[in-house]
Amino acid sequence: MSRPCRIVGEVLESLRGVVRPGVTTKEIEDYADSRIAALGGISAFRGYRGYPAGICVSVNEQVVHGIPSSRRLVEGDLVSVDVGVFKDGFFGDAAISLPVGNIGGEDARLLSVTEEALYLGIAQAVEGNRLYDISNAIQRHVEGNGFSVVRLFVGHGIGRQMHEEPQIPNYGQPGQGPRLKRGMALAIEPMVNAGSHEVRVLSDGWTAVTLDGRKSAHFEHTICVTDDKPEILTKAG
Ligand code: MF3
Ligand code: CO
Predict the structure, then answer these.
(1) By the number of CB atoms within 10 A of the CB, which of 77, 99, 189, 216 ranks highest?
(2) Residue whose CA is at the smallest distance from ligand 1 atom 6
């Protein structure tokens, strides 16, 4: 799994230098597509249940699954990029959210709380813990900071398929759910809304947006459960 995941990490890292005011979301996709190919991977998303693009780019009130377009980013936007790669029989999946130029203080807090929630969730992914220990760590940090956790979408097991058992909600009771075992690969992905947790899907059949129109952030890593510290697979080398 380290091969597809390493590619995902490298591509996301390189996108940090691409996201800026004036760039279109399609240009971000084109850049990612060429990096994925150069690193020997294949987009896991293109064609998945008919998804029409190589990556997902979700702006502001778009929560996840935004389809790249001719939309130009402007200063103050908050953009989430989600990259999935298939290589040598296995999948990797990760996402980051980035500020476009200078963003407001509340939006910056939304980004940092969501990323912190991801790492607090990952820290729970150790052998012997229960699945919803991950969920609960995420939920507590998000709600403790006055934001809300999206419930309609969840994290997931990952391996020879992009989506495997178990589903990983970003809310739940500690000490509940299946026991975690070493070797499990999990895509942990908090989606956090500034306002209400409610989302709806646009008529394109993909783009999920907040019902109240407020902003949303998304961070994701593919990790491997060990008997000690979880191994984050989707890091840049
Ligand atoms: N990372 C997302 C997920 O785990 C994106 C997949 S949606 C796709 O579900 F259709 F674009 F593939
Ligand atoms: Co995922």
Answers:
(1) 216
(2) 45
- Give the C-alpha separation, 159 to 90, whole Å: 5
* Number of domains the chain contains: 1
Q: How many C-beta neighbours within 10 Å does residue 142 have?
A: 27
- Closest ligand 1 atom to Cα of 206: 10
Structure confidence at residue 237 (pLDDT): 80
Other beta carbons within 10 angstroms of residue 213's beta carbon come to: 10
| CATH code of residue 106 | 3.90.230.10
Measured from the CA of 49, which atom of ligand 1 is nearest? 10
For residue 85, the tally of other CB atoms under 10 A from its CB is: 33
Q: Which of 36, 57, 65 has most ligand 1 atoms within 8 Å of its beta carbon, as the pocket-test mutant?
A: 65
Q: Are 121 and 230 in contact (CB under 8 A)?
A: no
pTM of the model: 0.98
Asked whether residue 237 is domain-assigned, the answer is no
Cα distances (Å, whole numbers) of residue 155 to 7, 122, 146, 163, 187: 20, 12, 22, 9, 6
Question: What domain range is 165 assigned to?
Answer: 2-232
Residue 33: the pLDDT is 98
> Is the preceding peptide bond at 230 cis, omega within 30 degrees of 0?
no
